[in-house]
Amino acid sequence: MTQPHPQQPPGGPQWGPPGGVPGAPWRPPMSPADERTWATLAHVAPFAGGFVGLPLLGPLGIWLAYKDRSPWVRHHAASALNFHSCCCSCSRSAPCCRSWWAC
Hints:
Elements: H1 32-49, H2 57-66, H3 71-102
Helix pairs in contact: 1-2, 1-3, 2-3
């Protein structure tokens, strides 16, 4: 009898996270070190993306890739995405506000 892969639950591969959405492939939970790394990258990525003009692409990609694997990473990626989308929209409307205050 063959032993299952150490990261797979006994009985073969499962579909959907335990207690989660059926149809999604099962993925092992992230380690705390990986969670901290990806949460930090979600907050740093907009600054790196700002050099090419796409500051929201980093947090959005991290949120889409890791939202089902870790609530910690999902929270921080969504927070970074919300903060930087607000900053982008405010910086786009700043010239309009500046001219209004000058009146």
